[in-house]
Design brief:
The chain is about 30% helix and about 30% strand. It is of the alpha+beta class. Helix 10 links the parallel strand 20 (about 355-360) and strand 21. It is globular.
């Protein structure tokens, strides 16, 4: 049986050390979560999968890690400072504050049902900062609300240091911050979250071709790399486009409460580089941009063959890493009936995604020879460099198996008295619960084969 609701995942995450409530001992903080020992491993594996696909498997995309704090002017000319807001309403009866566009009924309070609510007002989503001793409390910088804009302002830096012909891309993974009115859905919508975004710069007459290319490329990644079934994913084109967009589509996953966005693919035209470039009047921009008198660099591309200098179009792919983790866990979660009133919870993650790649269990904790052999095997498996290998020396072997089923460990390896006699161990497989006796020296080869699945 799959997860009936996100609450199943919330309980598992707390119980097994994936995700904790941020500042929990002080009552928590809405929209903030801490990632525990297994959560950081799963997030790292998802990040690595994205980075491997975007950077290491291609010749045309470079990586970037930009600052979290950035000059206020950047967000002025991107349009965020003036228009990056949500419609906020407040219930006059109970005091609840809500995003009007997310209310079940925009005329009634979601909390108490009252119709006595205020008119919507724009609510600034960016988190402002007062940087330096001379700021006197005035906002002069922002925590970035996305990674994309910090990529655009580095376009020329990357191009000058690592020349590319069009098309080429710049990718980065990192934190973003938004002062959400009503965080919801566990880690689905937070105030501090992680994005994996790629900006692909193309010739203006090839934008539609590459928009379609990246739509399919990203959908295939969710299916083939993360293992999400195709029937659980769909494209949802934007009916109302943002002011900068020529086309936009969301990739949505079938969460227990219905389909919702996990990644967006956007044709942003020449809006972004055009907004931040020096000498805007020299270029025939398609998008409407704010006049920029502060930029010091022309963010243009010069075609060596034609001699033309122009502002490239941008095709953007923007994935929520936290949402990807949530979708992966929901898809892998199963509650199995073992008969005789017994059940088990198991995360059937792809082995390379699993937070722990293998657990080594000494059957008897008070026999030094067995514990020494267990430590020896753990050391050998760690030398493979494939991720976290745990020595599980905490008691009842059945409970150890159940714990590792819940965190998604592909195999458990048991060292017992027979190991001292013939050098064999028992491998127990997560998905089938079948057990196999193999030579201790063969465990590393077996594990490598499993991780490649």
């Amino acid at each position: 049986m799959p997860a009936k609701s996100i609450n199943d995942i919330v309980a598992l995450c707390k119980r097994r050390g994936f995700i904790f409530t941020g500042s929990e001992i002080y009552g928590g903080l809405g929209g903030a979560y801490d990632y525990g020992p297994y959560g950081v491993e799963l997030m790292r594996n998802i990040r690595n999968a994205w980075w491997n696909t975007m950077i290491y498997a291609r010749n045309d995309i470079e990586g970037l890690d930009a600052a979290l704090i950035s000059n206020r002017l950047m967000w002025k000319y991107s349009g965020h400072e003036g228009s990056f807001s949500d419609p906020l309403v407040e219930c006059k009866k109970c005091g609840a504050r809500m995003r009007q566009d997310k209310m079940k009924d925009p005329t009634k309070c979601d909390n108490c049902g009252s119709t006595d609510i205020t008119e919507p007002r724009a609510y600034q989503l960016m988190m402002g900062l007062s940087i330096g001793a001379m700021a006197n409390g005035e906002i002069n910088a922002y925590l970035r609300p996305e990674t994309a804009t910090t990529t655009y302002v580095n376009f020329k830096n990357v191009l000058d240091s690592k020349p590319h012909k069009l098309p080429f891309g710049i990718a980065q993974i990192g934190k973003a911050f938004r002062n959400e009115i009503s965080p919801r859905g566990f880690v689905f919508r937070m105030r501090e979250f992680e994005q994996a975004e790629m900006q692909y710069f193309v010739n203006p007459n090839e934008d539609e071709k590459y928009f379609e290319y990246w739509k399919q490329n990203r959908m295939n990644w969710w299916i083939n790399t993360l293992g999400i079934p195709a029937e659980k994913l769909r494209f949802l084109p934007h009916e109302k486009l943002a002011h900068y967009a020529k086309a936009a589509v969301d990739i949505e996953y079938a969460f227990p409460d219905g389909f919702d966005e996990v990644e967006g693919v956007h044709n942003r035209q020449d809006f972004d580089l055009g907004s931040h470039t020096k000498g805007q009047g020299e270029f025939k921009l398609s998008a409407h941009v704010m006049e920029n008198k502060d930029s010091t660099v022309k963010l243009a591309y010069s075609d060596a063959q034609t001699g033309d200098s122009f502002i490239p179009y941008v095709i953007e792919t923007a994935m929520g890493v936290n949402r990807a983790m949530l979708a992966v866990m929901l898809e892998a979660y199963e509650e199995e009936d073992l008969g005789d009133g017994k059940t088990r919870t198991v995360l059937k993650l792809k082995p390379w995604l699993s937070p722990v790649k293998a657990a080594v269990i000494p059957l008897v904790r008070n026999v030094p020879e067995i514990v020494d052999l267990s430590n020896e095997l753990v050391d050998d498996l760690r030398k493979l460099g494939i991720g976290k290998i745990e020595l599980e020396n905490s008691g009842n072997i059945g409970k150890n198996y159940r714990r590792h089923d819940e965190i998604g460990t592909p195999i458990c390896v048991t060292i017992d008295h027979q190991t001292m006699e013939d050098g064999t161990v028992t491998i127990r497989y997560r998905d089938t619960m079948e057990q196999e006796r193999v030579k201790m020296d063969d465990v590393a080869t077996k594990l490598l084969q499993i991780i490649k699945q």
